Amino acid sequence: MSKIKAYYQLVKPGVMYGNVLTGVAGYLFAAGHFHQFSWVGFIATTLGMTFVVSAACVLNNYLDQDIDQIMARTKKRPSVTGEVSGPAMVTYSIVLLVLGTAVLALWTNWLVVAIGLIGFVTYVWLYGAWSKRLSLHGTTMGSISGAMPIAGGYAAVSGSIDIGLIMVFLILFFWQFPEFYSISIYRRKEYKAAGVPVISVVRGVPATIRWIFINTILYVLCTVALTPLGYTGWIYFVIMLIAGLYWIYVGYQGFSAKKPEEWARKRMFRLAMYHILLLCVMLSIGPLLP
What InterPro entries is this protein classified in (predicted)? Predict the structure, then answer.
């Protein structure tokens, strides 16, 4: 049982479920807009994404062992403790990737397959193995990969790249900066000790707060833009605008926060989690609301 638990932990359940949730929201958003829903397509998209995202997380664990053994929140991962060997992790990742790609190829479309593979390569190599270790702009690579599941979910219905796909991609892209930059503030010492050049380490906390504020505004603008573009009803617009303005207000409070670490963890990061849940729900039903 402990071995099964170790393999389960290697897929980073929190990361995996979060990504798949956005993929489901992307599918339902497109299905509502185009009035096209297929249980086969929905299940295949969800299952395929689960495998591909899990494969990326497992391989990322394998590549990040040197960093993970230093940081408090990751030093107990099975990849660090030795519960699962390196070759086993690589094999596990390959099997998951092949299964996920096969499911997407057989029951969705080639655009979804392409998005899945681009997301995999971006997360594992361009982010995890390369830019994360060399530049504060690694977050940009991570945000690109993190926005792929929702784009893939949308593409499973649309079958093409259109303004709707671009917008849901941008929404998730911009959301990840306030979310991760908040983490980088309250875990700044850990990242510094591990030699990871996140923005809070390289440019300091004040600059990080400024970029959190800017990207929060960009996220909110993209979410509410879906209504005038004809993808959602006005109920969606009102709810997302109110929630978005409140998040922007909390972001603004960061400029005068006496304890930035506490503000980042208990306010900004927590709101990021609430926002992604609200976003997924509202995207799923937004096209159906008045």
Answer: Protohaem_IX_farnesylTrfase, UbiA_prenyltransferase, UbiA_prenylTrfase_CS, UbiA_sf
